[in-house]
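Reopening this one. Same input as before:
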Amino acid sequence: MRTASIERKTNETQIKIQIELEGSGMYEIRTGIPFYDHMLTQLALHGLFDLKIEAQGDLEVDAHHTIEDVALALGAAMDQALGDRKGLVRMGSAVVPMDETLCEVAVDLSGRPYCVFNGEWNGNDINAIPVTLFEHFFSSLAIGLRSNLHAAIRYGRDDHHKAEALFKALGRALCSASRIDPRRANAIPSSKGVL
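Same output, byte for byte:
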């Protein structure tokens, strides 16, 4: 089974993450930020990852450090669980509607961290999380995961729906990309021979 456990401790946050890539979408998530927990739940549930996250951060300052460090640690845990990345499908994408909103996420588990985020928000925050931190989450996840990650809000009116559709699409895209393709015969999915 492709699993990983990560602990990240700084002066700002203390984080423990466990992930199983071949899971069933089971989750236990406690970051101290209820809406963030809700978004990470969507990632686990729609990605079919078994995910446990326990985070304590300096929320008396704001949510920034907790959101960033959980994303970095989650990316690192997924990276560890992927191992040498032999046999991976490697690339995946998903387009997810949520009522009036449509979002798209594409991922390449290439070993090269890069993030592009395109989208407009209607307000400045969602349940006390500044909307700028959602782009920061995707960027930090891409760094920890060593992946190309593109996310786009195609259209929509409700910012809650936009965020939720993004995290559902992320889960679906990662689920597709992280699968083992039996036709690859345990080969690295790259003409370079390394990811």
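So the earlier flakiness isn't reproducible anymore. For the record, The mean pLDDT is 97.
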